[in-house]
Design brief:
The structure holds two protein chains of two kinds. By secondary structure, chain A is α+β, with helices and mostly antiparallel strands. Chain A is built from 18 helices and 13 strands. In chain A, 45% of the residues lie in helices and 14% in strands. Helix content of chain B is 74%, strand content 1%. Chain B contains 14 helices and two strands, in the order ααββαααααααααααα. The longest helix of chain B is centred in the N-terminal third of the chain and has 32 residues. The chains are: A alpha+beta, B mainly alpha. Chain A: It holds the Pfam family SBP_bac_1.
Chain lengths: 440, 297
C-alpha cells in the first residue's frame, strides 16, 4: 500500500510539473507589459501585489500582520500572499518560474539568489529602496556581479553553540570573542574524560548529516586564512592541504572519543528533541546559525549560549542575510513592490510587527527601537551578531547549483567518516562534482 | 445490423468512462509521452529543454556511482523484504483463519500497523526504535549487549527499513485470508482421512490452492517495493553513505532537489524497464508453480 502511494505521489508530482511547464511557454513580451502597468500604478489606481515566502507559523503570522498594516496605511495596495514551509518552497518557486508565473515579491535565500539573478528573472533594486541603514557585509550578499537584486531582511551569523549549563558545572568560561581552534581542542581533550559514557565534547564537524553543511568545514578553512570554499565569482576554492588536515584532525578526535562515533553522528536529526545530539545532551558544542537559537532555547530554556566560531590565523565566522526579498522581472508593479520592501525593512512600525521573524532586523534604527521589548532569546541573537560582525568574513551568495553540490558533500563526508573513502579521494571527488554540478 | 448495435453499445461505454478517460489521457499518458522526450534532454524546469540525445542514459550507466548504489540498495531491499513480508503475511493469515471468539478484534489489531505504517509518524517513530537509546538497544541492554545506532550504520540501516516494510504485511495478509476462505473444506477432510499431517496438508493442499493468490501478492509487492520512497526519505534520507538510497529517492533528488528533470525522466524509464522485466520473469516462472483449479492439473 505505502509504496503504491509513494510512487503515486512521485508520479503525480512529476506529471503536474510536466503539465504545468507545458502550458507556460507562450508569454511573449514582459517588458512591454510592465511599462504599461507602471503608468497605471502612477495614476493611483488599486494595485494587487503577489508575495510569497517560506518559514514557520510564527513568521507567517507576523508577515500577514505586516501586510495588513501596510494595506491599512496604503489603501490602494492589497496583497495576494502565498506561504509555506521550506520543504517544498523552492520546488514550487521553480515550477512557477517555469510557468512564467512568479509573484511580484519573492523571498529567496543566499543559496539561490544567484540562480535567479543570472537567469534574468529579478529586477535591479539599486534605486528606489533606502539601504543606508543596512550593514555593508549583509548588503554585499544581495549583489550579483555588482547589481543589487536582493534586499536582506534579517541578519544571521554562524556560531559555536554550547551547553552553558554543562560548561558552568565543568567550570569552562567562554570569552566574549570565543576561543581559538587550539584552545577549543585543548579544552575538549581535557574535558572529555570528565564526561559520562555516551557523552561527547563536540559535534563531528567533518561529517555532514543534512543539506548545505559544507559550512562545518568552511569555518575551519576561513580560520586558516584560506577563504570560503568558493570564490565570490563561484570558482571551487577548497584548499587541499587544509581539507586533509581538517579530516585528519576529526578522524583523531573520533578515535579519542572527543566527538561521537560515525554511527551516532549519522543518527543526528536537527531540532528533533530526541534525536538532535545537541538538544538531547549527547554533545556539548555544535556549530549552528544564530537564527536557529530559539529552537533550542524553547526546548531547554536558559541552557544554551552562543560564541563566535573559533579563529586561528584569521577569524572563522561570517554573517549572512537570513533571507532576501526580491522583485520579479515580470512584475507589473515594480515601483509599488520596491516601496513595500522599503517600508518592510525601514519602518519602525513594521519592525515592531515583524520582530525577529526573519532574523535580527537589518536596519539599525528599527533594531534600536525594537530591542527594549524583546525576550532573552532574541537578545542573545542580537548580542552574537554584534560580537561576530566586526571581523566577519564578507559573505557572497552561493553559486548556482551549490545546494545540489552540498548534497554530494554530505554523502562524501559520510563515506570518509565510515572509512569507505580516503580524504584524498574525497577531495578529488568533491572537485569533480563541483565541475559537474556548479554552473555559472 | 448486429454490428451496428455492437458499435453503439461500445460508444455508450466509452461515453460513460469519458471523464476518467480524459483524466487518464491528459494526466497520465500525455505526461508519460513528454517524459520520454525529456529523458533525451537537459531540462532544469527553469530553462527550456535542450536536446542531448543519449547522454543522460550514458551518464547513468557509466558515470553515476549513486545510480549503482541505489540500484544495489533497492534490489537488496526488494529481494529481502518481499519474501519475508509474504511469509509473515501468510503465517499470520493462517493463524487468523480460525473460528475463535473475538477473531474480528484480533484481525483489526493485527492489521493496524499496516494502516498507520505508511505514515510519516511511524517512520519517525522508527528512529526511536532503532536509535542509540531506542527500544531495541534497551532490550539488548537487559542481556548486557551494547547496542549500536542501527539506523546510523551503513551495514544495518537497510535492515531496519526491511523490518519496517515486513511489519506492514497487513494488506497481503487480508488477501491471503480471503484466499484461504475460498479453499473448500472437503480437501482438508480428504487430506485428514488420508492421514496427512499438518505440515503435509499445508504443502500439499493449502499452498497449491493458494498459489494464484501468492502470485498476485508477489507481483504487487515486488512492483511496490521497487518504488519504495516514504520510509527511506524520512527515516534515513538515503544515508548513511547511500546504503539506503532507494531508487525512487535518487529519482526524487535529481528531479526536485537538483532540478535535473531530463536526467530524472531517464531514471524513471530505466526503473520502468527493470520493473517490467522482473514482473515478466515472475510470470514466466509462474507456469511452474501456480496451480489453477479451473484448469485442472
Amino acid at each position: 500500500m505505502s509504496k503504491a502511494r509513494g510512487f503515486g505521489l512521485g508520479a503525480t508530482a512529476l506529471a503536474v510539473a510536466l503539465t504545468v511547464t507545458a502550458c507556460g511557454s507562450s508569454n511573449s513580451n514582459d517588458s512591454k507589459e510592465s511599462a504599461g502597468s507602471q503608468e497605471s500604478s502612477k495614476a493611483g489606481s488599486s494595485v494587487k501585489l503577489g508575495i510569497t515566502w517560506a518559514g514557520s507559523q510564527v513568521r507567517h503570522d507576523a508577515t500577514l500582520a505586516a501586510l495588513d498594516l501596510y494595506s491599512k496605511n496604503n489603501p490602494n495596495v492589497t496583497f495576494e500572499p502565498s506561504y509555506m514551509g521550506f520543504d517544498t518552497y523552492f520546488t514550487k518557486l521553480a515550477t512557477l518560474s517555469a510557468a512564467r508565473n512568479l509573484p511580484d515579491i519573492m523571498q529567496i535565500d543566499t543559496g539561490n539568489l544567484m540562480d535567479y539573478a543570472l537567469r534574468d528573472q529579478l529586477t535591479d533594486l539599486s534605486a528606489g529602496i533606502d539601504t543606508s541603514n543596512i550593514n555593508d557585509k549583509l548588503l554585499s550578499a544581495g549583489k550579483v556581479n555588482g547589481t543589487l537584486y536582493g534586499i536582506p531582511l534579517g541578519a544571521n551569523a554562524i556560531t559555536f553553540m554550547y551547553n552553558k549549563a554543562a560548561f558552568d558545572k565543568l567550570g569552562i568560561q567562554v570569552p566574549e570573542k570565543g576561543f581559538t581552534w587550539d584552545e577549543w581542542l585543548k579544552i575538549a581533550k581535557e574535558t572529555q574524560p570528565k564526561l559520562e559514557k555516551g557523552k561527547y565534547f563536540m559535534m563531528d564537524l567533518s561529517m555532514a548529516t543534512g543539506t548545505t553543511e559544507s559550512d562545518k568545514y568552511e569555518i575551519y578553512q576561513l580560520a586558516q586564512g584560506k577563504g570560503f570554499i568558493h570564490t565570490p565569482d563561484g570558482k571551487f576554492n577548497i584548499d587541499r592541504d587544509t581539507y586533509l588536515a581538517f579530516n585528519k584532525l576529526f578522524a583523531d578526535l573520533r578515535k579519542e572519543g572527543v566527538v561521537p562515533p560515525a554511527d551516532v553522528t549519522a543518527g543526528h536529526k536537527q531540532y528533533d528533541p530526541q534525536l538532535d545530539l545537541f538538544m538531547n545532551g549527547t554533545i556539548l558544542v555544535q556549530r549552528d546559525y544564530s537564527a536557529g537559537f530559539p529552537n533550542f532555547e524553547s526546548v531547554h530554556p536558559g541552557q544554551y549560549a552562543m560564541a563566535p566560531v573559533p579563529s586561528a590565523s584569521n577569524a572563522g565566522g561570517f554573517m549572512l542575510p537570513s533571507q532576501f526579498f526580491t522583485v520579479s522581472k515580470a512584475s507589473k508593479h515594480p515601483d509599488e513592490a520596491k516601496k513595500f520592501i522599503d517600508w518592510f525593512v525601514n519602518d519602525k512600525e513594521a519592525g515592531r510587527t515583524l520582530t525577529l521573524a526573519r532574523g535580527v532586523p537589518v536596519s539599525k534604527p528599527v533594531l534600536d527601537d525594537l530591542t527594549p521589548t524583546l525576550d532573552s532569546s532574541a537578545k542573545a541573537q542580537i548580542d552574537i551578531i554584534d560580537r561576530v560582525a566586526p571581523d566577519a568574513n564578507p559573505f557572497s551568495s552561493r553559486p548556482k547549483g551549490f545546494g545540489a553540490w552540498t548534497d554530494e558533500w554530505t554523502k562524501i563526508s559520510q563515506a570518509v567518516a565510515f572509512d569507505k573513502m580516503t580524504p584524498e579521494q574525497a577531495y578529488d571527488e568533491l572537485k569533480k562534482k563541483w565541475d559537474e554540478i556548479v554552473k555559472l | 445490423m448486429k454490428r451496428r448495435r455492437n458499435r453503439d453499445l461500445s460508444m455508450t461505454g466509452y461515453l460513460y468512462i469519458a471523464p476518467w478517460l480524459a483524466g487518464f489521457l491528459i494526466l497520465t499518458v500525455w505526461p508519460m509521452i513528454q517524459s520520454i522526450y525529456f529523458s533525451f534532454t537537459d531540462y532544469s524546469l527553469l530553462e527550456p529543454a535542450r536536446w542531448v540525445g543519449m547522454s543522460n542514459y550514458r551518464n547513468i550507466f557509466t558515470d553515476d556511482t549513486s545510480f549503482v548504489h541505489s540500484l544495489k540498495a533497492t534490489v537488496l531491499f526488494v529481494f529481502l523484504s518481499v519474501p519475508l513480508k509474504l511469509a509473515a503475511a501468510l503465517l499470520i493469515a493462517i493463524m487468523m483463519n480460525r473460528k475463535l471468539k473475538g477473531m474480528h478484534f484480533y484481525r483489526t489489531v493485527i492489521y493496524f500497523p499496516s494502516l498507520i505504517g505508511a505514515s510519516v509518524a511511524v517512520a519517525i517513530l522508527w528512529n526511536n526504535v532503532f536509535g542509540v537509546q531506542g527500544l531495541v538497544n534497551q532490550l539488548l541492554s537487559v542481556f548486557h549487549i551494547e547496542g549500536k545506532n542501527w539506523i546510523g550504520m551503513p551495514e544495518t540501516a537497510l535492515g531496519t527499513l526491511i523490518v519496517l516494510a515486513v511489519w506492514q504485511f497487513g494488506s497481503s495478509m487480508v488477501i491471503f485470508l480471503a484466499g484461504l476462505k475460498q479453499i473448500p473444506g472437503e480437501y482438508y477432510e480428504a487430506a485428514a482421512v488420508d492421514g496427512a499431517g499438518k505440515l503435509r496438508t499445508f504443502f500439499q493442499v493449502t499452498l497449491p490452492l493458494l498459489s494464484p493468490i501468492l502470485l498476485f501478492n508477489l507481483v504487487l509487492q515486488t512492483i511496490g517495493s521497487f518504488q519504495m520512497f516514504t520510509q527511506a526519505f524520512i527515516v534515513t534520507k538515503g544515508g548513511p553513505v547511500e546504503s539506503t538510497y532507494m531508487y525512487a529517492l535518487l529519482l526524487f533528488d535529481k528531479a526536485f532537489a537538483h532540478f535535473q528533470m531530463g536526467y530524472a525522466s531517464a531514471l524513471a524509464w530505466i526503473l520502468l524497464v527493470i520493473i517490467a522485466a522482473v514482473t515478466a520473469l515472475i510470470f514466466a516462472t509462474s507456469r511452474a508453480w501456480v496451480h489453477y483449479e479451473t484448469e485442472g492439473s
